[in-house]
Fold each of these.
Amino acid sequence: MTGPDRPTDDLAPEQFARTLIAALDERDGRTREHSDRVVTLARALGVECGLSSQELRLLGIASAMHDIGKIGIPDHVLMKPGGFNADEWEVMKTHPIRGERILRAIEEEGMSEVATIVRHHHERYDGSGYPDGLAGGDVPLLARILSIVDSYDAMAMPRPYHRARTHQEVMAILDTEEAQKHDPDLLERFRRSAAHGQ
């Protein structure tokens, strides 16, 4: 049902998010746990950045679903215990576009913005990221925030191909990526928000 007779529900996007996240959890529980931690980090950085309540809401939904496109990644790539070869990496790099397609299929207010954030969360500040090679301020603000906290958690937690790193070790790596992978201003704000959480 569409149009004026369609029932409204201010929580509809979050309800869709919970459903999709449950599906992702069935496919790959590790990705679900990562997404849960990213939500917490992203909200803290969003508050540090002075985002509005609506922006924080969209950031929270996008953070929860930023890896939803991994549902469409074949098992031999998604579940691989080691690093990827060149072909496998090209497949894995499709997950932001897959995620965008999934989210754009949800015809609820705000989901178009969420889909855009998800599409661009692997762009880099210097323009060398994917899928579109956007740079600097052309990368949506909420995607730039998500990029930092996604990177932080990916390094802080153990993976089959690396050990968990300490907070200090992760921050040292992020510092080397300033103005290359990450927005310098947002990274400074993340230093403050992360320090508050220690």
Amino acid sequence: MSGGNVETTQGPSMIFDSLPYYDNDLERDPGLKDRAERLIARELKPQQGLHPRVPPPISLFTNNPLLQAELARIESRKPLPQLDTSRYQLPGPTSSPATEQDWQAALNNAHAQLEHQRLRHTNLALLQNYGSNVWRIHNYQMEATAKYLDKTLEDLKQLTIEVNRDRKNFQTRVGTQLTTLETRWTELISSVLQIEMANVALEAEIDRLGKREVELASL
């Protein structure tokens, strides 16, 4: 694990970058690997409640009860209610004898059905005249968007490969230097420890000679 100070607009901060192509501490020390796995498992353990920084849930469609009811239906996985097909039929008056109001309601329904069929005929005529070209244009736009997204994905993959290759080359290049410095540091620490042990032994020898001198002087 290596780190360095980096100046930012908000002040100095510490950035840590791992050396996966060089560090092999986990392979050399099984105990360290076990401790790392325990720490990871502890972090992945589900916590009670949400984090304080998590915003509260958003209430959707607060001004539209119909959309709220539809959202609640989808969340509860309830099926859609069946369509009312009675408005597409032409029933006559059900009462016998039929009143003028009953016939007027049936006539209004017939006018509505006639207008609906006229609109359907108009839409079909528009679709027949212009639908094929609009569909071709839509397909062309979708194909262009798909090609752009594929190219963007390939560029990102290539960029990722280049970044990983550069990191590997850099870490491999400086790995020998890091190993040499680590070995030298170990040797220096060992030399310092040997010097300290020699100093302790020398102090003990000086103390012994001092006591011997005192004994000889007393004689």
